[in-house]
Amino acid sequence: MKRVIKMSDPSPLYTQIEKDIRKKIEDGTLKPGDQIGSYNELSKRYAVSLITVKRAVSNLINQGIIFSRVGKGLYVAEPVKEKLDLSKHKSIGLVLQDLNHPYFSMVVHGIEERAYELGYNVLISNSSNKIEKEESQIDHFRNLGVDGLVIASLSLEYKATEYLRKLHEEGFPYVMVSYIHDPEYWYVGSNQELGGYLAAQHLIKLGYRSIGYLHAGKGNILSEIRKNGYYRALTEYDVPYDAKFIFYLDEEHPNSVADRFKLGYDFGKKWKSIEHKPSALFVYTDLVALGLEKALLEEGVSIPDDVGIVGFDDITMAAYANIPLTTVHQPAQKIGRMSVDVIQKRIDGTDVGNRTMLNPALVIRESCGASKRASTAGSAAHEEVIP
Questions:
Q1: Calpha distance 289→283 (Å, rounded)
Q2: Are residues 260 and 285 in the same domain?
Q3: Are 226 and 295 part of one and the same domain?
Q4: Which of the 8 DSSP states describes residue 317?
């Protein structure tokens, strides 16, 4: 099995491995009954840790695509032909917009961990960035008899669709793990406004006085909420707000990992031509920030000497960028775990609040210039987390 890990791919390593194994099974390279190898063998083959390998194959095992024989390794399973009857099993359906999205892949890991602790099977579907497919998958899971649904919607209006309203009115146990602005719907996520505040506050405390914001687009409510936090920090610390420092990206295809990276990259290629430039940028998401970094370095722009950068999400690849990215950490795995707890309580009829909000934390790395700007840097740690 050829090693397929690509450090340039922003998706988590375990997702890349899972995708490679799944592809080999689908195209017939690996056939039912074939031995894939042991965990240790796969760890060496892909040059990753055992934990990464176990995360990579967990979905495949749970879906019955591969199975494990104690002391012998992992094998490709025979295709299941009979119809699945979920009425005899506790189960949760998970509807995702993109299985390759690095943030939601971390949420999924938390969902799976907590679900299995509570005795639930997890069925995962990928809506491939199509709203009609998302709705049909919800219907499919309900027809199968799942007890509840965890939904990461691809709707960028961040408001309840007619379909979600219907689900809510029927009282079916569900919870959103993608941001939804309507307060009456069931949601587990992080405090987005606070995250924007932490990012801007950090840059201010480092001494930056001209701080810009790389915004997803004027119609993007989530990006606007993060901007509100940024603006609040500037106001509280008497740092001038300049509308020229708010840069709106053209999000024609914002759901794709590659597209978001390219948005940042294309903006970075234009950076030198911008006449009115800030000395630091808060970027609304890590994928855009990583694309921005790549373009700026190609253009000979020094990070953080010429411009300091802070992202948002703390995806896995943020720590491994050429200039490790300072970012706002969203507790993705905890969000996943708590979403299952909310589903469990709703199934049991326990009254719980509609919105569960977790606080983000700042992860300080090299892109913001903290070690260079701190007056007593000394032997400062490479990475620091500030709640």
A1: 6
A2: yes
A3: yes
A4: G
pLDDT digits (tens, 9 = 90+) for 318-355: 999 999 999 999 999 999 999 999 999 998 888 888 89
* 203 has a pLDDT exceeding 50: yes
| Residue 72, phi then psi, degrees to nearest 5 | -120, -25
d(CA 356, CA 165): 19
Cα–Cα distance measured from residue 225 to residue 215, given in angstroms and rounded to the nearest whole number = 10
pLDDT on residue 256 = 54
Decide if 2 is inside a domain: no
Domain assignment present for 1 = no
Which tens digit of pLDDT belongs to each residue from 349-375? 888 888 999 999 999 999 999 877 654
Averaged pLDDT of the chain: 85
Q: Based on the domain organization, do 134 and 274 belong to the same domain?
A: no
- On whether both 161 and 265 belong to a single domain, the answer is no
Name the residue among 211, 217, 219, 231 with its Cα closest to residue 284: 217
111 in the same domain as 69 = no
Dist. CA 364–CA 207, nearest whole Å:
15
The encoded tokens of residue 116 equal 């299995």
Whether residue 158 is contained in a domain is answered as yes
Q: Which amino acid is at 226?
A: R
Are 326 and 364 contacting, i.e. CB atoms less than 8 angstroms apart?
Answer: yes
Six-digit token string for 169: 């009115």
For the chain, give percent helix, strand, coil, nearest 5.
45, 15, 40
pLDDT at 380 over 70: no
One-letter amino acid of 281: L
φ/ψ of residue 359, rounded to 5:
-80, 135
My answer on whether 114 and 169 are in the same domain is yes
* Residue located via tokens 């505040």: 197
Residue 87, pLDDT > 60, answer: no
Domain that holds residue 60: 13-76
